[in-house]
Amino acid sequence: MKAIIYHGSNGKCMIYGEIEGELPMPGEGVRVRNARMILRVGTVGNLGIAGCGPKQGSDTRITHMVPQTTCTVHSATECSNEAANAIDAWPNWS
To answer: How far, in whole angstroms, is CA 39 from its chain's centroid?
Structure first.
């Protein structure tokens, strides 16, 4: 499933990618494949980016993809198909 994992002591680091199984619980470690970091969500907000994806003309910033990473979960949100397609197509910010 495509998901956003909120990571870090305050859950402000947003890692998007593919995870296996159910959404992980807070405190669990998780492997994220084809991972991208969401640096800025623009005007849609954290749940909006998971629900509908970034919007054209916004200042959303998403990094290049890495094959996989691991992180400790602060919280997690499953992405809709619409959001996953939009995030996957979003240009790399560098």
So the answer is: 10
Q: Three-class SS of residue 48?
A: helix
- Beta-bridge partners for 35: 66
- Phi, psi dihedral angles at 61 (to 5 degrees): -130, 125
Q: 50-66, pLDDT tens digit by residue?
A: 999 999 888 999 999 99
Chain centroid to Cα 42, Å, comes to: 14
Q: pTM of this prediction?
A: 0.94
Among candidate residues 24, 27, 22, 23, the one with its CA nearest the CA of residue 8? 27
Query: 3-class DSSP state for residue 28?
Result: coil
Tokens at residue 20, please?
A: 């296996």
Alpha carbon distance 40, 31 (integer Å) = 22
- In angstroms, the Cα distances linking 69 to 32, 44, 65, 94 are 5, 25, 10, 19
